[in-house]
Amino acid sequence: MAHDNLDQRRHAEASQPAADGEPRRRFLTTASGSAMAAGLLGAYGTFGYMLGEFVYPASGSVRGWLFVCTTETLAPGEAMDFTSPAGAKVVVARQGAGTSAEDFLALSSVCPHLGCRVHWESQDDRFFCPCHNGAFDREGKPISGPPQAANQSLVRFPLKVENGLLFLEVPLESLASCPAQRANSLRSGSESDDPDTHSSGVA
Amino acid sequence: MSRIARWFYERVPISGEQLAELTNEPVPNHLKRWWFCLGGTPAYLFVIQIVTGILLALYYQPSTLSAFESIRYITEEATFGWFLRSLHKWAATLMIAAMILHQMRVYFTSAYRRPRELNWMIGMSLLMCTLLTGFTGYSLVFEQLSYWGATVAANISDAVPIVGPIGKQLLLGGDEYNSRTLSRFYILHAAVLPTTLILLVILHIAQVRMHGVTEFPEPDDEPTAPKHFNFFPDHMLTELMLGLVLMIILCALAVTLPATMGPKADPMSTPEVIKPEWFFYVSFRWLKLFSLSFAVISSGFIVGAMFVWPWIDKVLRRITGIEEISVYIGIIATFLLIGLTVWEAAVAH
Questions:
Q1: CB spacing of A57 vs B169 below 8 angstroms
Q2: Are A49 and A43 a contacting pair, CB within 8 Å?
Q3: Facing B291 at nearest CB: one of A118, A119, A146
Q4: In angstroms, rounded to a whole number, what is the distance separating the alpha carbons of residues B96 and B41?
Q5: Is pLDDT at A39 greater than 80 in this prediction?
Q6: Which residues from chain B sit within 8 angstroms of residue A116, using beta carbons?
């Protein structure tokens, strides 16, 4: 008896006009299709996000404060080369007679144009970048080449003075092997002139 | 049909006639001239690059600590390593040269016009991918010039508006060249870019097959003379002959001018004279002539214009009414390219 009723109900549902079932079918098709598309989009989107995060570098370069010298080491107008333990070459100069960080200048040897290393040319009294012929004066201001066109000076490293000790913030990671730390007089031109070795350490 | 042939046909149901139909497309008579075979030349050289590249990868180590030493080992100790490395280097040079010549041929014969605009864009993508492959491969050597070349290129990328800084980070794996950079160059050079190139080559050839080779009817051709000949074996033999000549040239170059080793990369000292590979001389000189932002934006504009040249050509022809306007522009551009390249090659700074 129950079977008969079920069969009758099924028969009745099947014999309903197609137009009655169409909206429901269309809704179910659209809903299930949308759910599947959303699921796929969400899953592949999450995977894409993870992939992007993985490929993008996790952190920038590590920087730290290094001891350079005591403030008395450099007289006003004098400069010296400083090489960090990671190999970064920095020109440190004293501009004023005071003993605050503003009286000192620390110039990066990285050309602001496209990242090559500048070197000091004593005959022309300038820093010169061999990559695209950029030149800078002794204070790092551009005097010719593409850096002058774009008004790009040599980057100045942050400096601080604590208890008469001068500290410099530089990148601590580098591909270069750690060369012997040395400080040479820049203004005399040659690296062999006036050697003035000093120690450095992480502040 | 023999038993073996029947066995094979059951598993691969393609008949000889179908195979002939697939490969034996009639091609226009002008393809008998060798300079119309320049499209096949880069493909041939690409195969040589894949074979020699796989062999070199057996010994190469993509690490700043060992990359230079592994290349020295390949060059000086591995049996015939110097020869395979030299073949790889020279095939890269010839591949880029052949692609440029092929592109010039397509440009000056206006073969990029409707309906082949998309294939021109695929060809441009192939050229860009090939240049990138050349650049990343050169960087893998980790000698002074390649290290500084990579540094300069990453900083050029940094100057591109909006996406540049992200591009630099993705390329270098950090703010600057670091111990994780070489593996990125290696994956790009040996996996990502070759796969992209293979896919683009498939699309490029598929487009050629769909549209057929561009017809160039010549005025002095006899009207009744056949205008086509069979791809197989006639054109195939021409390509094989060209391949043989290429192998002879490659071997001669590899033996007489083998790949050498420069000084190992020193991140603390840029060499007094620095040059990229010859195919980047133009952009290197361009960077010396103008400020960075202008040089980068103008270069991007020129490359972008080259991509959509089929449509620019159409507009120019409509505005000026000169059918060969692109040819005149192309002649000026070619002289400019050659001039800047020679200028950069001739001077130290």
A1: yes
A2: no
A3: A146
A4: 10
A5: yes
A6: 148, 151-152, 270, 274
B116 three-state secondary structure: coil
Q: Record the tokens describing residue B326, joined without a space.
A: 């692109």
Each residue of B39-70: pLDDT tens digit? 889 999 999 999 999 999 999 999 999 999 99
Residue B271's closest chain A neighbor by CA?
A130
Domains of chain B and any CATH numbers: 34-214+229-271 (1.20.810.10)
Interface with chain A: mutation pick from B291, B296, B340, highest number of A CBs within 10 Å: B291
Of residues A79, A38, A87, A100, the one with CA closest to residue A61? A87
Buried b (16+ CB within 10 A) or exposed e, A105-127: bbbbbbbbbbbbbbebeeeeebb
pLDDT in tens, A80-133: 888 877 767 788 888 888 888 888 989 888 898 888 888 888 788 888 998 888
- Please, are residues A118 and A89 in contact by the beta-carbon 8 Å criterion? no
- Whole-angstrom CA distances from B176 to A87, A108, B62, B147, B317 are 14, 14, 17, 12, 46
| ipTM (interface pTM) | 0.75
User: Any residues with CB less than 8 A from the CB of A77 and at least 6 apart, and which?
Assistant: A94, A95
Interface touch A175/B270, C-beta < 8 Å: no
Using 50, 70 and 90 to split pLDDT, how confident is the model at A57?
confident
Which residue in the block uniquely carries the two structure tokens 């041939």? B44
Class for the domain spanning A63-171 = mainly beta
What is chain B's alpha carbon radius of gyration, rounded to the nearest angstrom? 23
Q: How many interface pairs between A and B have CB atoms less than 8 angstroms apart?
A: 86
Residue that is written with structure tokens 């073969």 in the block: B111
d(CA B10, CA B20) in angstroms, rounded, equals 18
pLDDT over 70 at A11, yes or no: no
- Residue A124 pLDDT: 85
